[in-house]
Design brief:
- With about 250 residues, the chain is α+β, with helices and mostly antiparallel strands.
- Strands 7, 8, 9, 10, 11, 12 and 13 form a seven-stranded mixed sheet that branches. The chain has a six-stranded antiparallel sheet with strand order 1-6-2-3-4-5, sandwiched between helices.
- A hairpin with a 2-residue loop joins strand 3 and strand 4.
Length: about 250
Amino acid sequence: MKSKWTKTKLLQRQQELTKFVPATKLFSRRHLLDMLKRYRMVYVKPDVGSQGKGVMRVEKDGAAFSYQNGVTTSSFRTFDGLFRSLSQQIGSKRYLIQQGIHLLTYEDRPFDLRVMIQRNPTREWEATGTVGRVAHPRKAVTNGSQGGTIYAADHLIRANASESRTEELLEEIDRIALSVATQMSQTYPALNELGLDLAMDRDLTPWILEVNTLPDPCPFTKLKDQTTIQRIIAYGKKYGRRYPLNCTKSKQGE
């Protein structure tokens, strides 16, 4: 199940989850203009892809427009100029436009969370770990493969919330993750694991950014406490999954 569009529509069927899913449209001139007018900032991303490759942050600032692709930012005086340039980047691939979420930051860099959800040895869904990913200083994406830095999730949230609120948020994140797994597995009962990319905005509201059906647990290898990655590996072995864990691109937070 590689299509982000298919997975988004599946989540939107569940009323409990709909409020956590950013507005998402297929890439087109009209949709891009409408969403920029409404949200001012959106992400344009490939329908099929991983590791943050091809993801671009697009913004409207007054009458001007810009987008960031990797470490390069391009600016335009008109929407037509922006759309032509984006279309050249995209080519014939199917892309999506997703409502931009102004993420919480850590040391002035945005971060999101990766939640690992797995079938445990009794075949029940279990949220087996949550890790934080802080964006490379010059990039708009947080992926470790794009130079992101990995931290314990509670460390990053605690920098933006009280101790008690941090615990509440982590519990809510687990509930959302389990709801996602339940919803997805109703349509795809053979699923054994999911990687949920989830972020919080400046009001501490959680948002589901993406669901990965073949998640890479590499970020968890960067945690000082190895309990979580050991549990992930053990659960994976139970349903026949082996992880290469060649985790060289991401960095370990202090």
